[in-house]
Amino acid sequence: MNDKQFDELAESALKRIEDALEDCGADLDFEMVGEHILEIIFADDSKIIVNRHAAAQEIWIAAKSGGFHFRWTGKVWHDTRQGDELLTALSRLISQQARQEVTLR
């Protein structure tokens, strides 16, 4: 994939995450920091950071439970280690930090 394709796919994924967070019902806030970093802020002031890493052409997530890298497979963003789809993994991570069940769609 070329840089332009990655940019479009990554920006679309970040927008999709923002839209899903709007409707998730969890006690959290979120904001874009700069152009490519999404901060998810929880009631206890902990954060999950989602950002695009252009050099690796991946989306990275930093959470209390660790760091995760997602690579485009042609259809979806998959975790490079566990194989989870991006929104599935992010739902699990948000649920852990928010201490309530969250499903992002």
Query: β content, as a range?
Result: 25-35%
Which whole number gives the mean pLDDT?
Answer: 94
Number of strands: 6
Largest beta-sheet characterization? 6 strands, antiparallel
Radius of gyration: 13 Å
Q: Largest sheet, order of strands side by side?
A: 1-2-3-4-5-6
Helix content: 25-40%
Query: For the record, what is the CATH homologous superfamily label?
Result: Frataxin/CyaY
Q: Which class best fits the helix and strand makeup?
A: alpha+beta
Query: Please, how many domains?
Result: 1
Distance between the termini: 26 Å
Count of helical segments? 2
CATH structural class: Alpha Beta
> What is the CATH third-level topology name?
Metal Transport, Frataxin, Chain A
